[in-house]
Design a protein that fits this description.
It contains 15 helices and twelve strands. By secondary structure, it is α/β, with parallel strands linked by helices.
Length: 385
């Protein structure tokens, strides 16, 4: 077969294989315990699986509406009313998506044009910047302030200008486990008041929040809700990350634009799973007790490594815990993460990869969404460091 030898001008020349894929492959190669990639290694609810199976057998195997099935959108609207006392129209303001990543990509693509500036806070999840760049947008990087990873709102105010099209949030935060406060949201509300800035709020860990904190969704603040596209995840909530199911909330005028793009990325998403999730959402304890479930996991992991050479501040949300290894070695975090995988047998993710210009704070991210047995085995190895 003849070879095509034309030049290919990459639209993402600086993007390679994600760190999650790299570290997982390394974990497999060295038979290490994989605490690098953010997914549970325990089963989801057998009842939820059975519901999917039932709907498949009943013939719910063809396209769902582009927006998602109406019963599921109605159930989501009821949940938002009950938890946050906010009203979203199932008809015009709620859309089911192929997970959080598709939702974020569609939202950015829908509203960001060439030359628009999009403010993101680093360390930031790795799907944000590529979506901005593919839309011709310009990422504007702001650093969260260690050790608590807070936002300097005075700095934000200085950086906002006529070209600022979007500000991206993530709370609870991946990779740091930090959570935003009501005071944070009120500051953002003030800064965006009277502007055309859109807020894209990644809230996929909304139910995974600890120590009595309340999730401060942008939907709770009218001045933000009116300009926000909010992303949620069924996968994170129901331990089904491989199903790639999520949803988006937005005011009707923003949802109209979102749907124009969403329909040409995936059109619609898995039909039997939508029906099954609609039924399962009626079991409210499955999400209302999620924070307690993962707080126990966090506390157990921390207890297991107490007395080790790692230092830590307990995560306030998400299912990730940062460990500070500065008392062990001054190696680059990327190098130490690899050595820890090869020699100790525990895979993690170095946090410097979450910055556009790597910042090495001697921190590794460990996922504690694992069985107690897995956490015990990992901790046993980490205690030997």
């Amino acid at each position: 077969m003849p070879q095509y030898n034309g030049n290919i001008h990459s639209k993402l020349p600086n993007v390679g294989t994600t760190i999650f894929t790299v570290m997982s492959a390394l974990a497999n190669q060295y038979n290490a315990i994989n605490l690098s990639q953010g997914f549970p290694n325990f089963e989801c609810s057998p009842e939820l699986v059975e519901l999917v199976n039932q709907y498949m057998k009943k013939g719910f195997n063809q396209y769902a509406p582009m927006q998602g099935i109406m019963p599921l959108r109605e159930t989501i609207a009821a949940k938002m009313q009950e938890l946050y006392n906010v009203t979203y129209s199932p008809e015009t303001e709620i859309n089911i998506t192929a997970g959080g990543t598709e939702a974020i990509y569609a939202a950015i693509t829908a509203v960001v044009k060439e030359g628009d500036e999009v403010m993101i806070f680093e360390p930031a999840y790795d799907c944000y910047v590529p979506a901005i760049e593919l839309s011709g947008g310009i990422p504007v990087y702001m650093q969260l302030k260690a050790p608590n990873y807070t936002i300097d709102w005075n700095e934000v105010k200085k950086r906002v200008n006529q070209r600022t099209r979007m500000i991206m949030l993530n709370t609870p935060h991946n990779p740091t486990g930090a959570v935003m406060t009501a005071a944070d949201m009120k500051e953002l509300e003030k800064i965006t008041s009277g502007t055309d800035i859109i807020v894209l709020s990644d809230e996929v860990y909304e139910h995974i929040i600890f120590d009595g904190h309340k999730h401060q969704s942008v939907c709770l603040f009218p001045g933000l809700a009116e300009r926000s596209i909010i992303v949620f995840s069924f996968g994170k909530t129901y331990h089904t990350t491989g199903w790639k199911m999520g949803y988006v909330l937005a005011p009707a005028r923003l949802m109209t634009e979102f749907r124009r793009v969403h329909q040409f990325i995936v059109f619609t998403v898995n039909t039997p799973m939508q029906y099954a999730l609609n039924d399962y959402m009626k079991k409210k304890d499955a999400y209302l007790q999620l924070g307690q479930f993962y707080q126990e996991k966090r506390d157990y992991f921390i207890k297991l490594i107490k007395g080790s050479k790692f230092k830590y501040t307990p995560a306030s949300g998400s299912y990730f815990q940062l460990l500070d290894y500065s008392g062990i070695t001054q190696e680059k975090d990327t190098e130490y993460a690899i050595r820890l995988t090869k020699e100790i047998g525990v895979a993690s993710v170095p946090t410097s990869v979450f910055y556009h210009d790597p910042i090495d704070n001697k921190l590794l991210r460990f996922c504690f969404a694992k069985t107690n047995e897995t956490l015990e085995k990992a901790a046993e190895k980490l205690m030997k460091v």
